[in-house]
Structure formats: structure tokens, C-alpha cells
Amino acid sequence: MNWLKHWLPRGLTGLAAVVFGLALGRNVLLFLNYLRILIAFPYNVDYGEGPILDQVIRLSRFQSIYPTDISHLPFTIGNYPPLYHLLQLPFVWIFGPAFWYGRVINLLSLLAAAVFIGLIIYRLTKDWIGAIAGGAFLLSISYILHWSGFVRVDSLALGVSWAGLWAAVCWPERRKNTILVALFLTAAVYTRQSYGLAAPFAAFVWFLSSKPRWRAFELAGWTGGFSLILFLLLNGLSGGGFYFNIVTANVNPFFWDTVKNYWNGMWEHIPSLLVLCGIYVALAVWFRQKAWWLAAPYLLAASASAITIGKDGSNVNYLFEFSAALALLAGLIVAWFGIAWQEKQWVGKRWWLKAAVMLLLAYQVTLLYDWSMRDYYKWPTDRVANERADIAEMTAMIREANGPVLADEFMGLIPLGGKSLVFQPFEYKQLSIGKVWDEENFLTDISERKFAVILLYDPSGWDSRGARWTPAQLKAIEKNYVLKQRLAQTRVYLPRQR
Q1: What pTM did the predictor assign?
Q2: Average pLDDT in the 407-422 region?
Q3: How far apart are CA 230 and CA 216, in angstroms?
Q4: CA distances (Å), 346 to each of 234, 343, 349, 350, in order?
Q5: What pLDDT, in 10s, does the model give residues 240-284?
Q6: Mean per-residue pLDDT, 110-133
Q7: How far is CA 127 from CA 68, 122, 343, 423, in A?
């Protein structure tokens, strides 16, 4: 019976680890298949992809993407710093306008973020199963999967910020490394400005927990210095446009109900993960887990950043850093409990507890898979499968149009069709509400029928037009344009005959 008492705990715990690994593997395959489908799709899927591609094209022609005069056409806004756009320049010069290279950058960035999370976990715990679990968990989270297929800045920002955290964890005592960490953190900020909180704060606290502690203030100085230099440079080159577009133009109203709805969604779909992460943060410092000094401040700051999802027009990209915090903590939890043959851990002989944690996390990953399939995987892939022909027809219509084109959901077809973007409806509706922009000149342009085609997304179950256009703009369109057909849930308007 001794052999049974010796091997049964190891066998059952190992079996639980296998179940957990298979569940994670299924989610990672779903993530990779999702990216494969969207990378191969030649058109935009998300509203915000159009402005990004248009800005990449303008940068390729050495034009500013941060306008200062918004009193006349084109009415465009550059909401984000330019690093993601700059990385796409070689591709647009070689291949022309396309969405695939932005999506490939997303794939590589998120894979890099997963690898860096895993490397950090291994560096801190020497547990390779926890390291693999943490990295795979990032790619399993529904928010990460959904947004990864869109040409948006968030995936690159996350990958670069975790490169900085990895460098911080590896060599906090080296001065040259402090500069390297600051460069990575600054690069993340100049991909998406909100990344100036979670990763820099976590790196600062980590440096404070390591010797020499004054390196933390050195890191803050380097990061702040690099960020200020780049701000002055970009603002100067754009004639003040960088500040206006990044700061002043972000005037969206805030709704606490949106924050509450997202929290309720997380509590419904990832309750086990939230509870386990809370337990780890509460107890790890008591058990002198060194990783706490990175994980806890990152989670705290990422949670604060996640609250900004209450801004009108926000989406799951505001939860990227919070998702990364959960992935890091999931890996650390696995490493903390360990597997059956790690007898030196504080739960070394409590094999049943280890197996229970593995199975609980496996169940959580299964819930994530179902959530992704139902709410996040389906509609982008359905668009690829069912609307390709209609979207191709709209692209051809734009290419043949004798004049500028207006669109909302399918703005990305405008640069694909060889034309420049002249209006971003949602952004300028917010500027109008905030009294930063006067729409009278634009209403005159509509009344004079300057636009050859207008495409208004009108799906069932959501008032897209009301969310993105002002009532006066919609009234002017109905008065001066005639509805000709519907393609891909989109109303196609042409000018009325005079």
C-alpha cells in the first residue's frame, strides 16, 4: 500500500494538470484560429480600423495625422500616439493599403506579451508549469481574443509594456537595464497613452522592493524624461496638434453604468479567477512571495485604468491590462501551489488542494471558451463568412465614386478604395457635444452634396446611426441624399438629383 499512497497523489494531481493544460490548449487554438481568419480577411471589421489605416497612409506620404484646424474638411482626429502606425509604414510602402499587416503585428505583440508573462513567472518561481499557464491564460481571456483581430494600438502597447516589465524583473540592479526598461515603458506610452499607469507603477514598486532602491526613482526620471522629450518633439512638429488630438479631443462623457455592466459580466463569467486572484493578493505578501511586489501594484493600477471603460465609445480594449494582470496572477497561483513532486512548497503534502486548484482553473478556462464563442468570436467571423461579397461591392463603389465618401462602420473601405478619410462621425459627435467643434460647416457640406456616397451602418438591435451621428447630420443626409440599397447591414446613400 505504500506505493499507492506514494503515487496516487502524484497521479491524480498530474491528471488535474493535464485537464487544465488541455483546456488552456483549446483556448489558445481558438485564439490562433480567430487571428488566422481575420488576417486573411482583406476588409475592416471594426469601426476604429479605418482611421488607423488612413493615418498610416498619410504618414507614408509624410503628412501630419494630428490636425490643428477642425473648422473645415477633412474632419479627422488622431487619438493615439504614432508608434503602431510607424511600424506599419514599411508594409504600406511595399504592399499598399491593407489590414493584414496591422493584424500580424497584433498577433506577434500578444504572443510576445504571453511569452514575457511566462518568463517573468518562471524567473520569480522557477515553475515552468505556472509559466506556461500564465502565458496561455492571457490568450484565453475573451477580451484579448476579441480585440486582437482589429487593427488597433492596444495589442502592441501591451506587448511592449510587458517587455519592459520583464527587463525590470530580470536585472533591477543594473543602471543600463534601468534605461532599457524606461525605453520600453515609454514606447508603450507612445503606442497608447493610457499605458503610462499600470506597467510604470508596477516597475517602480518592483525596483523599490529590490536593492538598490534608489533605482526606482532613476527609472521614474528616465521614463518621464523620455516621455517629455517625445511629447515636445511631436507637439512641435505638429504645431500643437499632438496635444490637441491626444488630450483636448478626448472629451467623451463618462457613464458609471458601463463600468458596472462590465464588472457584472466579469463576475458572471470569471468568478473563480477573480476570487483566486483576490486570495493570492491578500495572502502572498504574508507568505513572503516576492512576486507580490510586481503582481499587486500592476493589478491595482490596471484596475484603476480599467475604470475608464466608462467613457462613451469605450470597448474591451480598456480591459487589456486588467486581463494581463489576471493572467500573471493565474500563473503565479499555479506556481504557488505547485505540482505533486514539489514537496518543499508550503502546501507540499496537500495534494488534494493542488488538484482542486488545477480543476477549478480548468473549469474557469472552459467558461472563458464558452464566453468567447458566444459573445466575442462569433460576430467578427460571421462578418467574414457572410458579408464579404457586400463589403467588396461597397469597396468597388467607393473606388469608382466621383468625390469624397462618408462612412462609419466601414470607414476602412475608404482608404482601401484609394480615397482619403474626410470625416470620423463618432469622434466629431463627441467634439460637438463637448462644444469643441461647430458642425455648421459640415452640415453645409452635406447640404451642398459634396459627398459622392454615404454609407450608414444600420444593424438590427442597435441604433448605430444615433450613436455615431448628430441628429442634425442625419436630418441633412435624409434631406439631400436618397437611399439606393442596403449592403452588409449598411444603408447606401447617393446624392439627390437637383
Answers
A1: 0.94
A2: 96
A3: 21
A4: 52, 8, 8, 9
A5: 999 999 998 887 789 999 999 999 999 999 999 999 999 999 988
A6: 94
A7: 52, 5, 13, 52
Q: Are 14 and 339 in contact (CB under 8 A)?
A: yes
Q: Which distant-in-sequence residues (6+ apart) come within 8 Å of 221 by Cβ? A: none
Q: What is the DSSP string of 245-274?
A: IIIIT----B-HHHHHHHHHHHHHH-HHHH
Mean pLDDT of the chain: 92
Which positions ≥6 away from 123 have C-beta within 8 Å?
166, 169, 170
Find, among 411, 412, 481, 409, the residue nearest to 445 by Cα. Answer: 481
The one-character DSSP state at 69 is -
Spatial contact of 220 and 204, defined as CB atoms under 8 Å apart? yes
CA 261, chain centre distance (Å): 19
Phi/psi of residue 487, nearest 5 degrees: -135, 130
In tens, the pLDDT along 425-456 reads 999 999 999 899 999 999 999 999 999 999 99
As a whole number of angstroms, the distance between CA 377 and CA 370 comes to: 10
Q: In this structure, how many other beta carbons lie within 10 angstroms of the beta carbon of residue 53?
A: 25
DSSP 374: I
pLDDT above 90 as % of the chain = 80
Q: What is the DSSP letter of 75?
A: B
Per-residue model confidence (pLDDT) at position 1:
56
In the prediction, which pLDDT does 342 show? 43
C-alpha cell at 339: 505540482
- The DSSP annotation for 268-326 comes to HH-HHHHHHHHHHHHHHTTTT-TTHHHHHHHHHHHHHHHGGGGBTT--GGGGHHHHHHH
Residues 6+ apart with CB under 8 A from 190: 81, 82, 83, 227, 230
Q: Quick one: which of 41, 32, 16 has its CA closest to 140?
A: 32
The C-alpha atoms of residue 405 and residue 415 are separated, in whole angstroms, by 10
Element (H, E) at 38: helix 2-39
Q: Is 379 helix (H, G, I), strand (E, B) or coil?
A: helix
Tell me the three state secondary structure of residue 21.
helix
Helix H or strand E encompassing 487: strand 481-487
How much is the average pLDDT of 302-322? 94
- Domain limits, the chain: 2-41+100-384, 44-98+387-498
**Listed residue (444, 443, 445, 469) closest to 455, CA to CA:** 469
Strand pairing report for 481-487 and 405-407: unpaired
Task: Read off the pLDDT of residues 7-60 as tens digits, 9 standing for 90 and up.
Answer: 666 677 778 888 999 999 999 999 999 999 999 999 999 999 999 999 999 999
For the four alpha carbons of 387, 388, 393 and 399, in that order, the dihedral sign comes to positive
pLDDT value at 175 more than 90 = no
